[in-house]
Amino acid sequence: MALLVRTPAPGLDESVALDPARPLRVTHARGPLTLSVVSIAWIRARDDAGRAALQARHLTAEERARAAELPVPKRRAEWLAGRLAVKHGVTAYLRRHGGGGVRTRDVRVGAVAHGMRAGKPTVDAPVEVGLTHSGDLAVAACGPRPVGVDLERTRQVPRPLVELLTPTAPGCPALDGMPLSLRWACKEAVLKHVGFGLRVDTREVELTAWRPDGRFSWRAGPVLRRHAPAADGLRLDSWAREVDGYCLALVWS
Fold first, then answer.
1. Which of 45, 63, 202, 244 could bond 59 through an S-S bridge, CB–CB 3.0 to 4.6 Å?
2. How far is CA 143 from CA 30, 50, 148, 162, in A?
3. Structure pTM?
4. CA pair distance 129, 108, nearest whole angstrom
5. What is the mean predicted confidence (pLDDT) over 216-240?
6. DSSP state, 145?
């Protein structure tokens, strides 16, 4: 049975922008969802003193120590951008919903340590977060309930993935025009929403529709249903678009 999908928060098409030249952009969708976009490219362009100033302002001492342990500069920039995206998303969400003036440095970002959901980002605030990065950008999503987000740079999909991403649901011609990178982003966003990520085969998420307003729906396979028994009964919002050379997909409650 395909998941039931409510009308998504209006305004996402107009408000979401993915610009590597802009260090930070925070978007509040109408409804309980906040997106925060941080430019990895901008962070890479900072000198050592500039990056150190960013870390001093926004990271805890433990996070600064963790950043120093990362040996590869590319990975350090991605890690820092992801941390900043989550922290800015959480503080903006809390301000919008009456949670006070929490500082980014006071938001502690962690991850589930064990089990199928190991690695899923968490924060020490009454919110749920999701995180993704691709190319020159990191994107975090924040809301009161689980959220899944995936970003993929629009590109030619490797041949082995073409068959995997080819629609199999009958009577869904709209999927034929859906870019393959966007299909992949949708599948990952669903799996991230339930917290499993790629621990579950993406073939367990069969896309069944993609509508003009960006909503998409899907059917959960038997393995996904076994690990998340309520998956087919959830009522979720969703949105997926090509934006500024990237494919972005969101799933939230």
1. 63
2. 12, 31, 10, 33
3. 0.90
4. 12
5. 83
6. S
